Amino acid sequence: MQVHLIDGTFELFRCYFGSPKAQTADGTEVGAVRGLLRTLGSQLARDETTHVAVAFDRVIESFRNDLFDGYKTGAGIEPALLGQFPLAEQAARSLGVVVWPMVRFEADDALATGAARYAEGSDRVLLCSPDKDLAQCVRGSSVVLWDRLRDRTYDEAGVIEKFGVPPASIPDWLALVGDSADGIPGIPRWGAKSAAAVLARYGTIGAIPLDAEAWDIKVRGAASLVRELEGRLGEADLYRTLATLRTDIPLEQDLEDLEWRGALREPLADLCARIEFDRFTDRVAYA
Questions:
Q1: Which CATH class name applies to 167-243?
Q2: Which residues make Cβ contacts (< 8 Å) with residue 236, sequence separation at least 6?
Q3: DSSP state of 21
Q4: 265-275 burial by CB neighbour count: b if 16+ within 10 A, else e?
C-alpha cells in the first residue's frame, strides 16, 4: 500500500502558469482548475495510487506570519489564480479524494502531519511535491519526496545527495541559506555549500561552535561565517522555526479513510458543467 499526499497548492500554481488559459461564458478564469483535474485524474489512473489526500492553502497566510512580518503572503498573486482555489478544492473532492484545506496552518504542515501519521501501516508514503521544505519529512525509504514532473524520488540517501544534509537538518539548512519562496532571508554569507558542510558535521545551528578555531572541518571563510551567525543567532532560531513543518495538526482521517474508491459522479458532473469542461467526465473511474 502506497499513500500519495499531494501538494494541491503547488499543482494549482503549476497548472495556472503551465496550462492554457480558459474562460467560461461569464468570463470566469478556470484554466488552472481544468489542468488540475487532468493532473489528478492522471495520478488516480495509476495502479499504485490507492490511498490519496490533497492539501491546499485555503488562505496563503498562516501562523508563521504572526512570527515574522517578512513571511510570504498572498500579496501579488493574480486574482485570476486566487479565485480558482475554491474550485480547486471542489475539483479534488469531486474526484473522491480527501481534501485538507488549511487556514492557520499551511498545506505543507498537513502533508508533514500525514506523512508522520500514515508511515506506520503503509508500505510507503510519497510526498508529491518538489518543495524542498518537505525534504525534512523523509524517513529512510518509507517516507519519500516525489518530484512528479521530473519523476525523481528522494529517499533519505537522495536528500543527503541533493542538499548535503540529512532530512533532520533541512530546517537548519533553510534557516542559514534562506528560502525566497517563503520569505526567509537566511543569514548573510551562508551559502548552500557552506551550510551543508557545517551542518553535515554539527547537525543543528545550536551545535555549531561560535569559534572558528574550534571547528574540526575546513570551510572557506569560516571566521566570517561565525561572525555573521553569532550576531544573528536570534534571527537564525526564528528562521529555523519558520522552516520547521508541524506534524501535529488535527487531521480527521485514519489511513483507511484515504482509500480512493473512485470519482463522485454527480459532484464531478456539476463541477464540470460549471467550468464548461464536460468532456472530462468520461476520463475517470467512478465509485
A1: mainly alpha
A2: 175, 176, 187, 205, 229
A3: P
A4: eeebeebbeeb
**Helix H segments across 45-133?**
64-67, 79-82, 85-94, 107-118
Does the domain at 2-163+246-282 match CATH 3.40.50.1010? Answer given as yes
Residue that is written with C-alpha cell 498572498 in the block:
74
Q: What is the pTM of this model?
A: 0.97
pLDDT at 149: 87
Domain ranges of the chain: 2-163+246-282, 167-243
In angstroms, the CA 86 to CA 254 distance is 24
Q: How far is CA 169 from CA 163, 172, 194, in A?
A: 10, 5, 14
Calculate mean pLDDT across residues 28-54.
97
Per-position b or e across 102-122, b if 16+ CB within 10 A of its CB: beebbbbbbbbbbbbbbbeeb
pLDDT higher than 90, residue 245 = yes
- The confidence score (pLDDT) of residue 212 equals 95
pLDDT digits (tens, 9 = 90+) for 75-102: 999 999 999 999 999 999 999 999 999 9
